[in-house]
Structures are given as C-alpha cells and as structure tokens.
Design a protein that fits this description.
Radius of gyration: 26 Å
Low-confidence stretches: 1-38, 80-88, 276-282, 356-360
Strand order of the largest sheet: 3-2-1-4-6-9
Distance between the termini: 77 Å
CATH topology of the largest domain: Deoxyribonuclease I, Chain A
Structural class: mainly beta
Helix content: 10-25%
Shape: globular
Oligomer: single chain
Number of helices: 7
Largest sheet: 6 strands, antiparallel
CATH architecture of the largest domain: 4-Layer Sandwich
C-alpha cells in the first residue's frame, strides 16, 4: 500500500518510542520499541512503502541545542552489525535543527528499512523511523504467447558473484518492461532474486529500447539453476526465457613457485579467527590454518595484515618448526617474515608492537632485506583504512563517482601519499633499491574500472587515486601485468565467501589486495607467476596473494 499524503512520524522519549503510521486517516501500522536513549527528535518519512527507484524524502526536527550530524538508512531485518551497510548522508547545513533530505532508492534492495538520525556529541541515534522498499511484482496474467521477444544471456555458466549480462530483442519499447531472475521452475514475486528494467535501471523511469543489453545487479545468487524472463506491469509475460547456471568458483591446489623469489601478502582476518558475529559462521580459522596456508605457498617474504603482535609471534614460532623456515628473519613492527636477513626497518613514527595498521587501523612499514647474491631490496607492508567502502557506496548509490574519489583521496590515497613521501620515495630511505609494496589497500585499482569493463562495475568508470598514485610513482601491479584484461581475469581478493562461494547481499567482491613492484638498475626483476590461494576451508575473508619473480638478465639470485 502506498500513502499519497501525510508523513510517517516517530517521536522519541527517554525509554519508550511509539510510532503510529497513518494514511488517509486510517491506522496502518503501530510500532512499539524499547530503547535506552536520552533526548527527543521528530523524524518523518513521506510514506511507508516505496518502489525501487522512488525518491525517499525524510524530514526531521531536533530539540533546541542539538546539532544534526547525519542520517543513515539501514536494513531493519538484518543483524549484521560488523558489516551493516550504512547509507549515511552528511547533512549539508552544519548545525541545522530541521531539514529535508532525499535519498535515491535506485540501488537499494527490497525489504524493511530504518532511517536513523544522529546529532553531534552522541554515539546513538536520536530518532528512528521505518519504511519498506518493494521490487517489481510478477503479474498474474497469462504468458503472451504471441510475443516476439527473445532473451540471450552472454554467459550460460557464471561464477558466484559475477554480474549477469542479458541481451533482448522484440520488446515493446515502454517503461514498464522488466527482466527478472528466478530459481528455475519457481517464478513468483516472492522468489525474485534480481531484476532490471529494459531502460537499464532498477526503477523503470523511462521507456526502454525494443532491443538492447542490460546488466542485472546486485546479483548475489547462490549456486544453482536460474531463469530470466521479461514482464510488463500490465500483466503480460513474454514467452521467451533464458536459462543460467551459477557455479562455485573452482577450488584448486596451491601451485609450486615458478620463480627464484616468491613474495606474498595475507590479511588473516582478525588474527585468523574472524569476527564472532560473522553471518554464516566463523571460518575454519585459527593459528594452524593461517600457518598452513603460508607453508603451502613456500613464500620467501610475507607481509601480514590484521595480525596482532602476539599472533605474529605465534605464527613465527609455528613456521620455525618447519624445515624450510627454521632460519626465519622477522620484523614485528612491519609484520614481515623473511627467509632472507632483514638489515633495516622503515617505520612511520616510533617503533611499537601494536601499531593501528595491524588491527583494523591504517598505516604501513617496511624492511630492507639482503638476497644470497648480496643484492638488496625493500619490502613495504600496508593496511589502509577499511572505511569508507568506495565500490559498495558507489554501486549502492550512496555516493557519486566524484564523491568516492574524494573519499579515497581523504583516506586510503592520503595514507599512501604519506607513505610514499616519507619512506618509499624519500631519498634518505634507500629509494633507489628494487621495492615491493604489498597489502590490503581497501581500494580497487583504476586498471579494473576503466571504460572497457563498465558492465562488471555497475556502469561506472573510476580513476581510483590510490592505485594511480602507485603507478605514477613507478610501481607495477603484478596481477595486471600478467593478466591485463579485467573482463576475463577479475582477480577478486575480497570477499571470497565463508564458506567459499557463500555470499550475502551486503558483500561485494573486489580486488583490493595487491603486490606491486618497482625495479632498480642493480636488481631488475620480472614476474613469472601470480595466484590467489584458492583452497577451502580457508581462514580469512581475504585471499592470500602470491607472486614469483626471476631476474630479467637470467642470472641466479643465489649467486
């Protein structure tokens, strides 16, 4: 039901909140909540139900003395506090006590939501109100057997997490035509898994073409058989359907190193234990799983992220029990383990066992190591800010391209800039040596988001500044060096699902874990191998990434 007039209001008192929704003078839905919240605010949403694509207008009035900070929209039926999508919109007028804010719903998922209002100086929201987002409804009319519409899916077998590209011909060219994806043999409104209108939007706000191509997203389909079918709002369904099979990503054994020098980067996810409130259950993690994954790579140098000092020491002790790592060299400040002697540490600030970078904070550190040939090189380990999540904010419609680029500049790229200026590129920090830079950068690569790959990136082209900064500094992305086409080689490192291939709608697959290198005149290397640790069970939500190198001259690094 849709309310054409009136606003849904929620009034807050200290202990109890009573929300009464009225539409055309009738009581629609009472809601009683128990919250421990000081203060009061009035929050209004213009109706209780919205179709995807409708603008959502929210108004608020604050008590005297309160200063508005932001409003966020949350799925109210999910309890995923550790990864909940916060569709926050910063208020334009700092210090305002009342305002009207409009959210776009084009990329929002269907379901119940809460709008929450925060004020400066208070950690909890001071106002909450509820509404629901609805998707298209499967018409009850008969199938249009005379329809000449045809559907074709580009890939008949897709890996979990891929976007679905559908071509169509013979549509009517109206604004009410949409393509839905359903489990095979069960086409109902309740089983609708994903959809797109023929105009390319999820709201159907303009007439679509009679023939064209659309990308269906968000697409979080579990392995199984599905069917796509075209519908119209006036009750017709086109006879033509197209089938699609979603398969699990192939699990493959860890290969043997192909080069003379193998390096790795591993975000172990909260010391390898994962968060206690993971939605599908903690992964098969722990110390033994982390150590086992590293041992299989036979890497010479490894950078660890989300690894505490105590866990780092445990990992080192376990690795030294293996014959290949008996003489392991370490840097607890940089969270680096190496088969080769470490001669220098490069740190931002004073040495500390528990710098923020190694939990969920941001920062980087590095080491200089000496190869058996006597040549020296540098290795920097990074873990940049997890927030804000640029790709998810962009695809969900939280932020524009310009805004996510600005966000990146103010967070991850800003941190990388300091690292480059103070350590990596500083002439007093051995900048003339061959250098590796690895880690969880929490920012994608502009090489993956160019104009040739818009279908897989929600139609966006983004020049992500963190990766551009590294390329400008002379660094080469090893994965893209060996796999230059992002359409055929996505290289997702986060999230891999837990268990593997099991995803929820709040997740988005991204390539944010990297190995970069920059050569020097004295040590010229070239990559001969790159892979993602692809076994299951697995202890982290990030894939361990591994690269092997050989000297460009054909010499031996051990000579």
């Amino acid at each position: 039901m849709r309310c054409s007039t009136g606003f849904l209001r929620t009034y807050y008192k200290t202990e109890w909140i009573q929300a009464i929704v009225r539409c055309a003078g009738r009581l629609v839905a009472p809601l009683a909540l128990t919250l421990n919240m000081a203060g009061a605010a009035t929050l209004e949403v213009d109706r209780s139900e919205f179709d995807v694509g409708d603008p959502i207008t929210i108004r608020f009035v604050l008590n005297r003395g309160d200063v508005a900070r932001e409003i966020g929209l949350f799925r109210s039926d999910l309890r995923l506090s550790w990864m909940e999508v916060h569709r926050a919109k910063r208020l334009r007028n700092a210090g305002t006590t009342q305002e009207e804010i409009t959210f776009e719903s084009e990329t929002m998922e269907v379901g119940p939501y809460e709008a929450r209002l925060w004020v400066v100086g208070r950690p909890d929201p001071v106002g909450v109100t509820s509404f629901e987002i609805r998707g298209p409804r499967v018409p009850r009319g008969t199938i249009n057997t005379a329809s000449e519409t045809s559907l074709r899916i580009e890939k008949l077998a897709m890996v979990v997490g891929e976007a679905l590209v559908v071509s169509f011909r013979g549509a009517r060219g109206t604004e009410d035509e949409w393509i839905g994806v359903f489990p095979e043999g069960d086409i109902r409104t309740e089983t609708l898994r994903a959809w797109v209108y023929t105009d390319g939007t999820r709201g159907g706000r303009r007439a679509g073409p009679e023939s064209g191509q659309v990308v269906v997203r968000p697409l979080v389909l579990q392995p199984g058989n599905y069917v796509a079918q075209l519908f119209t709002k006036d009750g017709f369904a086109a006879k033509s359907r197209a089938g699609i099979k979603v398969i699990r990503e192939t699990v493959s054994p860890v290969p043997a190193p192909k080069g003379q020098l193998t390096i790795a980067s591993f975000n172990v996810w909260g010391d390898g234990n994962g968060p206690a409130d993971a939605p599908i259950g903690p992964p098969s993690g722990g110390l033994s799983a982390v150590v086992g994954a590293i041992l299989k790579t036979r890497a010479d140098i490894v950078g660890l992220q989300e690894c505490s000092a105590s866990r780092y020491e445990e990992i080192v002790a376990e690795l030294r029990q293996n014959a290949e790592y008996t003489d392991l060299h370490t840097s607890i400040h940089a969270r680096v383990i190496s088969r080769f002697p470490i001669t220098t540490e490069y740190l931002l600030g004073q040495p500390s066992r528990d710098l923020g970078i190694y939990a969920h904070g941001a920062g980087a550190a590095g080491v200089k190591f000496r190869l058996p040939s006597g040549a020296e090189a540098r290795f920097f380990n990074c873990h940049l800010s997890a927030e804000p999540v640029g790709p998810l904010n962009l695809v969900r419609g939280n932020r524009t391209v310009e805004e996510v680029v600005e966000d990146d500049l103010n967070s991850k790229a800003g941190q990388m800039k300091r690292l480059l200026e103070r350590l990596v590129d500083h002439p007093n920090q051995d900048a003339d040596l061959t250098t590796f830079l690895v880690g969880d950068l929490n920012s994608p690569s502009h090489l993956d988001w160019d104009e040739n790959n818009v279908a897989q990136n929600a139609g966006f082209v983004v020049a992500w500044p963190t990766s551009r900064m590294l390329v400008k500094s002379g660094f080469i992305d090893v994965y893209r060096k060996l796999n230059p086409d992002p359409r055929s080689h996505r290289g997702f490192t986060y999230t891999n699902g837990y268990p593997k291939n099991v995803f929820i709608s709040q997740e988005m697959q991204e390539r944010i874990d990297f190995i970069y290198y920059r050569n020097s005149a004295d040590l010229n290397l070239h990559p001969v191998q790159f892979y993602l640790h692809n076994e299951d069970p697995y202890p982290s939500d990030h894939r361990l990434v591994v690269a092997s190198f050989d000297p460009a001259t054909g010499t031996r690094l051990g000579q």
